[in-house]
Every structure is written in structure tokens, then in C-alpha cells.
Amino acid sequence: MKIRVGDAIELKQIQVHEQKDLFKVVDDNRKQLREWLPWVDFMKKPEQYGPIIKEWTEMNDAREAMTLGIYYEGTLTGTCGFNTIDGLSRRGQIGYWLAEENTGKGIMTAAVAALIDYGFKEMGLHRIEIIAGVNNEKSRKIPEKLEFTQEAVMKDYEFLYDHYHDCALYRMLKMEWLT
């Protein structure tokens, strides 16, 4: 599974042999990522990613989710994908993160736009959602730049290590994206 985003950006399935690369990106960005991602502290060694990457591959194959690596100039620098896919309702929920060194370059906006295009045109989705922490300004800029509609603020939606935080729910419908 590959989605070409541009000359320098590609989304593709991460392979088990890349577990050390994935760990290094997370480890090098641990402080920044842990602020908004509840799983970061639990990933303490590269070998933990092997079973997770296998699970991602199985879920991708079953079309229950689609977790893809973001490769910038050939190097793994984050992930972007559908955390969940509801086939019956034709709905997907996008999640993403990017190494700090590559933020501010338009990489994530381009990757998410390409994923949305793929979701609507190739997967037949009707609705795509993005959920981001209310105070996570960097993450919220993505759906806002892509002209998603904010539908709600969900109180105490996610638990982050020692506290709950509110999240904003954004949505894009196929007919909105394609027009």
C-alpha cells in the first residue's frame, strides 16, 4: 500500500524490519509527542514495535484501519492514517504525528490531503473525521487548513497519562471534498 503525495513525500505501510527506525523517530521526539499521544511512554524499546507493525498490517489488510508511515525524502518521519474505518457507515477517522524537525514544511497537510483523497476516491468513504486536542494548535491547523467543519468539542474525551482533556471533532463529507 503506497500513496504518492509529491516528489519528496510518500505514505506507505511500515514494515517490521523498520521497527528500529520507527522507535528512533518516536524516541527522538518523545517530549513533543507525549504531550498529545497517550501511548508514547509505553514504548521503551524497538522490539515493542514488531508486533504493533504486524497488527497494523493485518488491520490494513482487513480494512479495519490504515496506519501508514510518512516518508519524507525516503526517511520515515511520522505516521498518518485511518485509526478506524467503519465499513458499514463508510466512515474513517484520521490520526497523525510528525517528527518535530519536519513540522512547518507542509508535509502533514499534504499527507492528510492525499489520504482524504484516497479515502473518498479509492475506498468509497462518505465521511472522514479528525479528532484533535482542543489545545493542540498544530494538530488542529490541519483540518482547519483543509476546510473541515468543526462539529463539536468533546469534554474529557481522552486520557493523557494523568488527566483528561477536551477534544475537537472535525468532519469532511465526500460531496464537500470533491466540490
TrEMBL record:
GO cellular component, one term: cytoplasm
Domain of life: Bacteria
Record's keyword annotation contains Transferase: yes
Boundaries of every N-acetyltransferase domain copy: 9-176
Keyword annotations of the record: Transferase
Matches recorded under InterPro entries: Acyl_CoA_acyltransferase, GNAT_dom, Ribosomal_N-acetyltransferase
GO terms of molecular function: protein N-terminal-serine acetyltransferase activity; protein-N-terminal-alanine acetyltransferase activity
Key word Transferase present: yes
Protein name: Ribosomal-protein-serine acetyltransferase
Organism in which the protein naturally occurs: Jeotgalicoccus aerolatus
